[in-house]
């Protein structure tokens, strides 16, 4: 979610700032292309590029096997467990294994936020308070990335809550592609084994996550827009 929001929001704001210029058209075309690529295909391409052709990232799994054999998980969040135990080689291995799956899953949905942010930013940049800011001599970067961008967060945050369900569904494909032993891969295995009770429980946990994230986003509305009170 963090990678998706950073890439999508900043690229959308940048495209709105350079509206109807070559950079704007390039960013819009890239956002459509990235969103159109299936998640599992993007994951396979990244594996070929960064694990086979340029062996700089691990191909699959959550941690190197030689480190995992001596690693004792506490919470089973490997990054958190590595910090708690002070196992820095394990921390580096866990982060390196997390990079490709996170980028694959986040990049696949970043295109939506690029276009959503761009549309709202264009409308916001035509507002009276932006015109007044230009008249007072404020820099364009400050107007775009500080004043206008914050006022576009409400629809963006709403979309994040809705897209979280799609992220959970995309995690099924991502974890299967990268052999990541997570809930998505577990769900695929249970479906193949026709373990309907486990399937129902896993989907129930997914639904709980979506509900909690949606609630948190509703609470964040008041932080982003002081006019909103509960």
Structure characterization notes:
Helix 6 (88-125) runs antiparallel to helix 9 and helix 10 runs antiparallel to helix 11. This protein is 78% helix and 0% strand. The mean pLDDT is 85. It has eleven helices and no strands. It has 230 residues and is mainly alpha-helical. The protein has helices at 2-17, 22-36, 39-53, 65-68, 78-85, 88-125, 128-135, 140-151, 153-177, 183-192, 196-224.
Question: How many DSSP helices?
Answer: 11
Biggest sheet architecture: none
Mean pLDDT: 85
Distance between the first and last residues' Cα: 26 Å
Oligomer: single chain
Structural class per helix/strand content?
A: mainly alpha
Order of helices and strands: HHHHHHHHHHH
State the total count of DSSP E strands. Answer: 0
- Measured as a percent range, the helix fraction is over 70%
What general outline do the C-alpha atoms trace? Answer: globular
Radius of gyration: 21 Å
Unreliable parts? none
The portion of residues forming beta strands comes to: under 5%
Question: Short description, anyone?
Answer:
By secondary structure, this protein is an all-alpha fold. The protein has helices at residues 2-17, 22-36, 39-53, 65-68, 78-85, 88-125, 128-135, 140-151, 153-177, 183-192, 196-224.
Topology of helices and strands:
Blueprint lengths: L1 H16 L4 H15 L2 H15 L11 H4 L9 H8 L2 H38 L2 H8 L4 H12 L1 H25 L5 H10 L3 H29 L6
Using brief descriptors, characterize the structure shown.
78% helix; 230 residues; globular; mainly alpha
């Amino acid at each position: 979610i963090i990678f998706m929001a950073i890439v999508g929001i900043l690229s959308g704001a940048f495209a709105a700032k350079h509206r109807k210029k070559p950079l704007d058209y390039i960013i819009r075309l890239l956002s459509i292309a990235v969103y159109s690529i299936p998640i599992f295909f993007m994951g396979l391409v990244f594996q070929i590029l960064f694990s086979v052709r340029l062996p700089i990232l691990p191909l699959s799994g959550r941690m190197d096997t030689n480190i995992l054999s001596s690693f004792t998980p506490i919470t089973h969040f490997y990054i958190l467990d590595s910090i708690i135990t002070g196992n820095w080689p394990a921390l580096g291995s866990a982060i390196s294994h997390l990079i490709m799956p996170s980028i694959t899953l986040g990049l696949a949905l970043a295109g939506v936020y690029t276009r959503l942010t761009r549309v709202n930013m264009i409308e916001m940049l035509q507002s009276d308070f932006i015109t007044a800011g230009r008249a007072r001599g404020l820099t364009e970067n400050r107007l775009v990335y500080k004043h206008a961008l914050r006022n576009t967060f409400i629809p963006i945050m709403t979309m994040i809550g809705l897209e979280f369900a799609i992220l959970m569904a995309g995690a099924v494909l991502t974890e299967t592609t990268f052999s990541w032993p997570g809930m998505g891969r577990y769900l695929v295995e249970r479906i193949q084994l026709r373990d309907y009770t486990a399937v129902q429980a896993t989907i129930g946990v997914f639904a709980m996550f979506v509900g909690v994230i949606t609630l948190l986003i509703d609470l964040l509305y008041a932080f982003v827009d002081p006019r909103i009170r509960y």
